[in-house]
Every structure is written in structure tokens, then in C-alpha cells.
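Q: What would this complex look like in 3D?
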Amino acid sequence: MKKRIFLTMIAALVAGIFCIAATAADAPDIKVIKDRGVLKVGTKVDVPKFGYRDPKTNKIEGFEIDIARAIAKKILGNPDKIDLQGVSAKTRGPLLDNGELDIVAATFTITEERKLSFNFSEPYFTDGVGLLVKKKNGYTSLKSLNGKKIGVAQSATTKKAIQEEATKQGIKVDFLEFATYPEIKAALDSGRIDCFSVDTAILLGYVDASTVLLADRFSPQTYGIASKKSNTALAALINKTVLDMKKSGELDKIMKKWKLK
Amino acid sequence: MNGPLALFKWQALFKEWNVFAEGLAITALVALFGLLLAIAIGILFGVFGASKSRGARLLSRFYVEFFQNTPLVIQVFFLYNGLPNVGLVIPVFLVGILGVGMYHGAYIAEVIRAGILAVPKGQKDAAFSQGFTYWGEMRHIVLPQAKLVVLPPMTNQAVFLIKNTSVMALVAGGDLMYCADSWSSSNLFYGPAFIVTGILYFLLCFPLAQLARKLEKKAEAHK
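A: Here is my prediction, written as C-alpha cells for the whole assembly.
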């Protein structure tokens, strides 16, 4: 009889430990996602290959969506359990802070200053800043843009990168900032700016018959998956997923799929 | 503390306060010149709208309906990116003034038209009988009386105009909203940036709104 009670107690203890272990594995920030059953992801909808809403199918697709799917698989066991929301450079930060989004995978460049406000994963992509100009103006390099106006995106790191390079080369350029890429393209077309400069991968989506992408590349920018600063367990899990994907070659495979390599 | 309003974000803002001061200066200047333009346009089309000539009334109607029924954002975008296609490149500062000036000119025209129509017809007949020309009658008899009715809603328009200068942010206008956008979007310290920007707009508009109230009371008392 005594033995029986003893065994029951052991069983209860083991069960208890399992219970604790189970809850410990689910930090509150991850539990929220599991309870909801869907991962809320912010992506670009206007950057071909990275995050782009295909006008024909009305579906958002791209390299970053595939990474988000891998993270959803890691957390929820199903890559389809994602809820995509289009973000701009300006909305992605606030949407993380107010909990509308769990993660942001939207050509989000990692900087030291930004790390103060958000968690960033290890970089999953490295890209240089490029220069898109009109063919008929005959610009050949940043140097030839001395004294000209360069259109950049708000909330992008381009301005700083170009400014540093310009100072190094001893030339002077002016910057005009716009909220969206199509607005910068419109300003380039109307001659308000002489050059459209953002990350090269983004510029590739805007090359057309009248424009040309110059060979110059500046200060490599690294993209990371961002999450809310206080969601540390989630950040660790995202980071692990990205690192695993790098190690297993899955990341390379997706990059190839989107012709980014 | 971490979050949108973390202390270090406020410190960063106060260290770089001059960014916001420059934006505020542009906003104030565009608002001032924009208001002068709006009043000029408003008087012209307001008088046209209340005139006896069918052609002038039609012209005023056309102007007012066009500017009241299309978004300011599109008008400004057209001035900025549309006109250069036909070789007309207007500096962005002027785009701001023209944008808010022409847009609010339409609203002020309606305010002035209503003010003129509120002046009793006998006043106009009397002026006519004294040999005033049409513009003389307007200047010396009708507009001074209309002023009392017109001033409170006009001051409200000035408040709207100040706030609407923020559309310049869309075309890299260098105004307060643009500076706040630009500053906060590179470092992502948007919390303090937009609170301070909101307060600055409030400080510009609140005294005017108070003035409108005062004028309204005065107009009431005059009746």
C-alpha cells in the first residue's frame, strides 16, 4: 500500500515536471502566437522578389515570405499558418510595438541604432546601395552626380551610406526623402531628382526602358527579421530558425528560387 | 524602460531639436504665404460668385467646385510631378504655397460670397445711387460689412490651411511633417517625434482658433 502511494507520488512528480517543462518551453510571447494559431507577419508588397503582391493572383509572394513561412513552421508546425500584412518603411516599427505584428520581414536593414528599439535576427541577406538614373542624362557613377539631387526612401539607411561615400569622394549631393518607392520613381521620371537610390535588390524592380542601374555599390546593408524588443524568447527562436536555414542550405535554396543569387 | 516612448528616444530628439525647428520655420512660412494667396483668390472668386454677371458667377463656381472636390494631395502631387512633364518645374516651397493657397482659396471664396450676400440689398442700392462703381461699392460699402460675418469662418480656414501644409511631406517639402517623418523613420524613434510635432502644430493653430472664437463673439454682439 505504501509502495503504491509512493509510486503515485513519483508519477505525480514526473507529470508535474513535464507540465513545468512544457510551460517553460513556451515563453509568454510564443504562447500568444500558439494560442492564436497564426503568425502575424509584416512584409513588403511593392518589392519584387522580396515581398510583392502579384496583381494577377492578388497574393503576396517572395523570398521574405518564404522565410516567414519557415518561422511559422517552426513555431506552429505549419508553414501556411501565417497572416501577411503589407507594411511600409514607416509603418513596420509601430506595428511591431503595438502588437499588430509578431515579426517583420520587410527588407529591414539592421543598424546599431535600430537595435535599441527592436530585436533583429542574424542577417539573411546582404545587399549594397545602388544608383538608378535616367539613361538620357548620361550619369556614370556617384562622382558624376556631384551637386545633384538624390531621391531616397524614408526610413532607409541609404542616405547615410551615400553621404559617407560622397564625403569620401569629395563631392556634394542633396537628398530628398519620399515615403514609398513609387513616389521616388515618379520624382525621377518628372526630373525632380537625378537619381533614385535604395538597396540594389529593390532598384532592380524599377529598371525600365528609360532608366539604367549604375555599377556603383555602397556600404553593404544586411537585412534581418525584426520583432518587438520585449519579445526576447521569440527573437531567440527566430534567430535560431534563420541560422538553421543558413546551415542546412535551405536559405540558399530559397534565394535561388527567387533568383537572388 | 523600453517602448515607443523610451527615455533615450526623447533625449535623442532634444539633442537634434534643430531638425524640428527648421521644419517648423518652413511650415510657418508656407502657411503665411499660402494664406495671403488664399485670401487674394478668395476675395476675387468670392466677389465673382456674388456678382450679377452670369459669366463671373460661372467662373467662380467652376473654380470652387474643382478645388473643393478634388483631394489636396492629388493637386500637390500634380504640381510636383505632373507639371515638370510639360517643362514647368516649380520649386517645392512654391508648390506648397500654391497648393494650400489655391485649395483654401476655393473655401475662402465661398465664405466671402456668403458674406457679401448677407449684406442687405439696400446697402448696395444706396451705394449705387451715390455713384459708386462696382469695385468701389465692394471696397467701401459691402466688404467692410461682410468682414464681420466672414472673419470667424476665415480664421478657421487659416487653421485648416496650417494643418494642410503637412501634405508637403509627400513631396519632400522640408516642412515640419517631413522633418518629423524623416528624422523618426531612420532611427525609428517615432513616439517622441510625432508627439512633439503634434504639439508644435497645436501651438501654431490654437491661438488662431481662439481668435476665431473671439471674432465670432464680436460678430454675435454686433447683430
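A: To summarize the key features: Residues 2-124+224-257 of chain A form a domain with the D-Maltodextrin-Binding Protein; domain 2 fold (CATH 3.40.190.10). The mean pLDDT of chain A is 89.
Q: Very helpful, thank you.
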